[in-house]
Amino acid sequence: MTSVSIVVPCYNEQDTIQLLLEAIFAQSFPHDEMEVIIADGLSKDQTRPRIEEFARAHPELKVHIVDNPKVTIPAALNRAISAAQGEIIVRLDAHSMPDSEYVARCVAGLEQGLGDSVGGVWEIQPRNASWQARAIALAAAHPLGVGDAHYRISRKAQLVDTVPFGAFRRSLVERVGLYNEDLLTNEDYEFNARVREAGGRIWLDSMIRSVYFARPTLKELARQYWRYGYWKARMLRRYPKTLRWRQALPPAFIVSLLVLAIMAIWQSFAGWLFMLESSIYVLVLLLAGIRLAWERRDPALVASLPLAIATMHFSWGSAFLWSLISG
Predict the structure, then answer these.
(1) Residue 195 in contact with residue 189, Cβ under 8 Å?
(2) CB count, 10 Å around CB of 246?
(3) Residue 141's closest CA among 127, 121, 157?
(4) pLDDT for 179-196, tens place per residue?
(5) At a CB cut-off of 8 Å and minimum separation 6, what does 230 contact?
(6) Residue 145: exposed, middle, or buried by beta-carbon count in 10 A (0-12, 13-18, 19+)?
(7) Distance CA 90, CA 29 (A)
(8) pLDDT tens sequence across 262-316
(9) N or C: more exposed end of the chain, with fewer CB within 10 A?
(10) Are 229 and 316 in contact (CB under 8 A)?
């Protein structure tokens, strides 16, 4: 039986860490062939006590904590991988819940040679029942919000550019290196870009599923997508060919609005174009909100879904542009 190390970056995740550990314990893969390495950024809440309590209550599953004084996700992953003993590394997040067959299917995909890095799709759920959380969870899996990001919307197995929670053999790390600690986000995409550069394949299996808890408020969503956009631009300096249309549209849209707004000072037609472009954008988002509100019998989505998608677009696009400008 192949040995597996599940590595988890973690910081102040007291609300979800128990759910993750319970989901790992429920895996069909044998406990005696698994270990869990949690790289904790010296959490200030009850995360550590809850991990320690779980480990005491479930001695048949090996759970270890390693310190991550840098706090960042790529640093956490590297420390966890360095401490891991397994032949196969499975990367998860502290705010996720893998399906009971998650590890077994990842291992099967690797052993069948389907990919050098194997992962699955997210079932995105709200962190709580608030109107913001409900809208954000739907926006994070809506084509208007994420374009063709396969791990959020795909229903079929296929080769892809990246997977969010990849599983790979330890030998792959020896071949392409650990996670890039110079990037504070986009670490999975950058790692998989190096895998593809080295001739490897990234395989997404829609039967490999995990619940991912979305950000609960628009403020936290804006911060998340600001980080995504900022560090995506930084990553593109090294891998310019990895830019996808879904990633180019938000900054291009923002630039077009800015250019038209400035031109409108001297040219009235630019003002009309600004109004037209803005109106079409708002109308499309409102129609999406109305449709989902009707389907889910949730009237709040009429306004909240457009707000969530717009937050994603403008945060990501603005941060992307700022990263390019700031050098």
Answers:
(1) no
(2) 14
(3) 121
(4) 999 988 888 989 999 999
(5) 185, 319, 320, 322, 323
(6) buried
(7) 12
(8) 999 999 999 999 999 999 999 999 999 999 999 999 999 999 999 999 999 999 9
(9) C
(10) yes
User: What would the 3-class secondary structure string for the chain be?
Assistant: CCCEEEEEEECCCCCCHHHHHHHHHCCCCCHHHEEEEEEECCCCCCHHHHHHHHHHHCCCCEEEEEECCCCCHHHHHHHHHHHCCCCEEEECCCCEEECCCHHHHHHHHHHCCCCCEEEEEEEEECCCCCHHHHHHHHHCCCHHHHCCCHHHHCCCCEECCCCCCCEEEHHHHHHHCCCCCCCCCCHHHHHHHHHHHCCCCEEEEEEEEEEEECCCCHHHHHHHHHHHHHHHHHHHCCCHHHCCHHHHHHHHHHHHHHHHHHHCCCCHHHHHHHHHHHHHHHHHHHHHHHHHHHHHCCCCHHHHHHHHHHHHHHHHHHHHHHHHHHC
| Largest pairwise CA distance in the chain | 73
As a residue count, the chain comes to: 327
End-to-end CA separation in angstroms for the chain = 49
Q: Which amino acid is at 216?
A: P
Residue with tokens 């590394």: 89
Strands 167-169 and 62-67: unpaired
CATH of domain 4-215: 3.90.550.10
Tokens in use for 181?
């600690």
- The contacts of residue 246 (CB under 8 Å, 6+ apart) are 146, 147, 148, 149
Cα Rg of the chain, angstroms: 21
Domain ranges across the chain: 4-215, 240-326
